[in-house]
Amino acid sequence: MTERGGRAFTPDFLTELFRNPLDPGYAAAAEQRRRHEAAGRVVVGWRRSSVRMVSVLTLVALGFLLTVAYRQTVAAEPSRSEARAGLAAQIRQREAENAALTSQAERLRAEVTRQRDSALSGSAVARLRQLEAATGLGRVRGDGVVVRVADAPSNADAVTGAGGTNLGRVLDRDLQDIANALWSVGAEAISINGQRLTATSTIRAAGGAILVDFKPVIGPYEVSAIGPGQMGRRFEDSAAARLLRSVSEEYGMSFDFRGVDDLTLPAATEPQLRYATPAVEPTSPGPSSSGGGTSPSPSGGGR
To answer: For the segment 218-240, what is each residue's pLDDT rounded down to a tens digit?
Structure first.
């Protein structure tokens, strides 16, 4: 400030306080904060741009890989379809060949039986027929029962298999129990879905299939048996029937049996029997008696 006469006066403290109320340190701190915020916005912007660029590149790479995989899948589909069709054709051909060979074997077996019967006497033929019926190698006919079991409805997905285990599914041991129970109540001949059981028959599981004498059978399963008149009532009281009834009531398995008049069971296929023969031991000279005693045992002592 100046007065008349040219003298200059500096402003007093109060005037300066009201004129500039903010301390210079606060102003410097605010300026520094503004500079940091500006730099941070630049860094954040750069980071966001980098993340966006990486995301775009990742999506582009993923799309490229999916496109390549799709093209390869489409390109390989004709060859896969051709291979699948070829395998299906081979399976059908082998099935037809198997059926033809089975028919031929049945015709040859019938011819052998006719030639045998013509060469033997009547009593010998009757004895052979009884033995064939007892061993399962001959077709039999008579009254009996048919036990029918089938899987319970499954809630599992047909593609993924999700939905849990079907506890009402028929297992190989269920058919084993039925067959053993029928044998125990007097059955003279048994077949499962047309497969005749013999003394060497097997009932096993392979994956999800049940094999009878190494031949697959599919449900519903029918166990047919020929035997005495009281066989059905005795089977109803057996432990196997009680177990299957409880499984049927609890898990929904289908189980029933009925008496059948004039039931016919086919003959079993010729069994592949193997006979064990003792091996011929090589001759070797015995222990010499000149030593005056027996040879020691491998452990160095004896009892």
So the answer is: 989 999 999 998 899 999 999 99
In the predicted structure, residue 50 carries a pLDDT above the cut 80:
no
How far apart CA 88 and CA 105 sit, in angstroms, is: 25
* C-alpha 50, offset from chain centre: 50
232, 257 contact by CB (below 8 A): yes
179 contact partners, CB below 8 Å, separation of at least 6 = 190, 192, 197, 203, 223
Backbone CA torsion sign across 89, 203, 113, 272? positive
Phi, psi (deg, nearest 5) at residue 20: -125, 80
CATH numbers and ranges of domains, the chain: 140-152+168-265 (3.30.70.1880)
Span 90-111, average pLDDT: 87
This prediction's pTM: 0.58
pLDDT band at 112 (very low <50, low <70, confident <90, very high): confident
Could you identify the residue written with the tokens 């089975």? 102
Instruction: Tell me how far apart the alpha carbons of residues 297 and 38 are, in angstroms, rounded to a whole number.
Output: 100
